[in-house]
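Morning run. Coffee first, then this:
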Amino acid sequence: PQGELSAMTVDTDGASRHIGLATSTLEKMRVTGTGPSFVKLGRAVRYRIADLDRYLAERVVNSTSEKGAE
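And here it is:
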């Protein structure tokens, strides 16, 4: 059902709050393909919460000298 999809997704503002990046950063990442996966529904952009959480989990590091710690 559509209500379930909307409960599992957020718009760019919601994604920004969820992962702590500026909306403009997320917009640039969409162009370059470097950010979290997103869904296009017509002109609307939505992020699945699971994709945002996965994006964060893939960037967990234990030291600033680890690859990806920038």
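The CA atoms of residues 32 and 52 lie 17 Å apart. Good start to the day.
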